[in-house]
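Researcher: Before we compare anything, I want clean individual predictions. No alignment, no superposition, just each chain on its own. First chain goes here; please echo the sequence and then give the structure tokens.
Model: Echoing the first chain and its structure:
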Amino acid sequence: MTEANKDDIVIQEDSEDLVPDAVLHVETETFFVNRKRLAQLSPYFRALFFGGGRESSKRHIEIKGVNLDHFRSLMDYTQNLRLHLDRTNVLGVLETANFLQVEKARLLCCKFLERELHLSNCLGMMAYAWHLGCLELYAAAREVVLTHLPALASEDDFMHLSKETIADLLASDDLFVPREDLAFEVTLRWATYEPSREDDFLELAGLVRPESLSLPYITDLLTKMKSSDPRAKLIYKLNNHIPTSWTMGRSMPRTRSREMLFVLGGSHEQDQQSLYQFNPRSGRWQSLPPLQRKCLTQYSVAAVGNNVVVTGGYFRDVLWYSVDWVWIYECSNERWVDGPALQKSRHSHCSVTLEFQVFVLGGSMDEGLVPDVERLVLGADCWDTVSPMIRAVERAAAIAMGSCIYVACGLDENGEVYSGIQRFKTVVNQWDVVSYSPFPR
């Protein structure tokens, strides 16, 4: 492939040579084709050649309504099953393949366009694919839109989406929004674009999860909004006509809003511990408000619900000592708050979540290792104690599976690696050792 066409896609398969028995005329060019071959690849040509119509008995047939260059590309494909696509011809070839019902060529065009999807074209491509009936391309474009809807809401293409399309996106549990505030903001932005959308706003607002709207956002929206703001009329109407869905109890959180990776850390000599959020769908990192704490290390971090919980640690004032501190980062409100203190100060421990509970396991106090396990139900004002581990360890690994918690290895009271895999059965509040690691570490 030359430098000029290095972006082309070439698809090649084995094919057999068939004797031409018909001539197709497109504009000023003629194509010698085999009827049976084309009929195998296209219902359009099957009906044309063998449907009993006037063209069935003709040797010379004129094809109208197609572009010559795009038709030539498809005829080359029917001869040798090689389809050359690039950014300049793919849409035309797709439309011609769609018109002539050459399904395999149509799918190749859609696959090419899927690879070309990005923020600047996903909205237009979603509408285009729906118009042509290319469901795979439509689904791929919709996936990009669902992942980046708040960023796309300022695009002109977004403002011209139909109410039905906006409703479909807002109703999806696959919609990714770091905060539900953004879903409401998207709705306001679309509804204020045209005065005629005022009645549509109430229907769309009913698709927002109201219990997930943050208090700071609502406060900021109401206090800074002026009477001349076009959003004010919509908010007033919403206040007088609360959507039925908002009065029917709690709705389910959006599934993808919970699919996040959080990373917290940094040098203990710094004034703060940096917090980052990674979205595995979009592949993007986002900086979040840091934990304002200096000289803290060996703490444990766990994610529960829509929160990040930091427990314990080793703190230096003049001397190093264990702490019972707990901080909770509320993702919906983008802020850190103090949580209930641990019953026992500890560091080098592990923590794990099970449903809406946080478990803190083992670690070291200033006096030495402890096997104690504490549990906090999110929203409660204190920790409670459950059965201690069989073997006290620090720097272990922990994971929750089903209704059980597993603690793997760790260092014992002598500083040696313990090879046991300890299991905590939360239902019966019991520990046992289920196995021993072949490679303790």
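Researcher: Okay. Second chain, same rules.
Model: Second chain and its structure:
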Amino acid sequence: MAVKQGDGNAPREADQRRACAKRRKNAAPDSLLSGNQAATAGAGMGNHAHVSAHCPLFALTLPALGSCTSWEDLPGMHRIGTLKRERDVMESMTLPPLRALEECRGNPLILYVAPLEKMCVRVLYECLRTLGKQERLDVVLATNGGTITTAHQVARLLREYAHHLTILVPYHALSAGTLLCLSADELVLGPMSALGPIDAHIGAAGFPPPDAPTLISAQDVRAFREMAEQWFGVVREEDRLQILALVAQRIFPTSLSAFYRSDQLTRQIANELLAYQLPDVDTSIRQHIVDRLAGGYFAHDYVISRHEARSLGLRVRFASQQEEALLWEVLQASRPSPCDSPTHLEGETTGVIASSSFSARLLPRWVDVPAARHKTVREGESTERTLEVHWDMEGKGDGDGL
């Protein structure tokens, strides 16, 4: 997500520089920065310095560093202590119910509350390495989805480390999250658990027209012909060819083939993963489940309840009262705190991957990028602030930022 920030920061930064210069004039000549810190901060970066060695939580961009006499003078430095406290609070809230659920179930447990995106795979791998290979592994999953290929990669990674995999869903495991659920030997679902259709979506390159959606499902393209036949009685072959020509005028032909390929890829992966859950079931039954998930619902945000998931043929067990209570407690403890304004987003946890011996948080941070994205930032050129996310990992005392 890109957020533009105008020139409203310039007066505040100018005031900060004047205040720092005044304190420097009245202060002792010795700098409060250590030699290494001063060298890192002032290494020929013009008006901006990049500090990373002493800031494990995020790389901080600091304007006019040389005019400040104390770390407290540096804009944003007060956030480091705040972020550390927020991480401690998050862990103190998340780990106790996580350990309680682990004791209740009697299996090692991983909490995955994050999108299924490429940047999350390495973090999950680090978490799995701390646990080692297990006969039985539980994963508490809460996600609104992600990419098909990442769900596939995560599923294969989990199966590398677990002979028997159980996925517990306290709330949402939608879209690619449902695709990942197919790889589990068993699903444990509560009354609030929600799975969803797995139809593939493709986004437009660049900015779509104002009247066009940002994402289009492969099923939307397929439904156009069905709509023409059922609503308007278009049944003649020449009329169908005209419909195809009309669609090709609106969507580039190779984009149409991309819809077809993504739909085929989704069904291929779903069949592969479902074989973990239903290895002894006839392939026609597995294909029926895949067809239903990939093309049997009229909206991508349709909610598949635990009862419907079981009737569909998935191996679903309803959570016990104790499991239900602990799952909900884990979910509530791992949810991000609401922000008062966009400027307070930095440091707010937006995702968690954790076990009893590992924790990692997905954090947003503001970075300055050139207004013209193909250029590098040069002194005097305009920049805009963009919100990016990164992982802050800490496992058994060793921190690492990604």
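Researcher: What stands out in the second chain?
Model: Residues 1-76 form one domain. Additionally, Residues 1-14, 23-86, 339-344, 395-400 have pLDDT under 50 and may be disordered.
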